[in-house]
Design a protein that fits this description.
The protein has helices spanning 25-37, 44-53, 79-87, 115-122, 130-139, 154-163, 178-188, 202-211, 226-250, and strands at residues 4-10, 17-22, 58-65. By secondary structure, the chain is mainly alpha-helical. The chain has a 3-stranded antiparallel sheet with strand order 2-1-3. A hairpin with a 6-residue loop joins strand 1 (4-10) and strand 2 (17-22). The longest helix has 25 residues, at 226-250. The protein is elongated, with a radius of gyration of 31 Å.
Amino acid sequence: MACGIYKIQSTIYPDRIYIGSSANIIYRWSKHKGFLRRNKHHSLILQHHVDKYGLDDLLFSVIAICEKEDLMPENGIIWIENCFIGAYRYGNSKKPYFNVSEIAGKGRLGIKHTEEARLKMKKPKGAMPDWHKKKISESLKGVNTWMKGRKLSEKTKQKISESEKGKKNHMFGKKMSEDSRKKMSDAKIGCKSWNKGRKTPEEVKRKQSEAKMGDKNARFGKHHSAETKRKIGDANRIKMKEYHQRQKSIA
């Protein structure tokens, strides 16, 4: 996590440079690339350059390492970064070609929000605008229906089944700790079920019933072994014992 001054330079036009500073230079470079790929970079000149020549044309390098305290604005200026901005200025201008401002002073390092500002940030930002809802709705069209009417072949079903068996399963041989179980249980307390209050139509009930009749049922023709029956019985007895103990403690 290098802290200091970095440079973004064009390989086709080496005199075209961007100078920046960050307390985490590698992370900042990944942010630059992300904004450029999404066409949302704050430097329109840099964005237009990448649109024309591609992201591979840019060469990223660290030109100075310093302490975080050196990057904190003093009188509205990050002095160490400002020195490099002056050193790499483009032609007759007072800044590098890709930089937006001539003065480095927009850093957030060392700035602390007031309690009032923190409370405002915690508050919900209100309902989503209708135009945004419409845009999301249109983008999701077809996402949930692409498999409608399609059926998986037996070969595909077999492959899916084999990929989840034994050691191939990501949960193979793993058991949740009591702490993890408790956290999952606590997380669901008070949560509203998406199906609460809804009634299943009679037609849907009939289809669900028919889908499990006879040889369509996954357990059709199968019987538990004596050992499995014993385990199920023991598990049920333990559950009933715990249930009665809880009832006694409540009483």
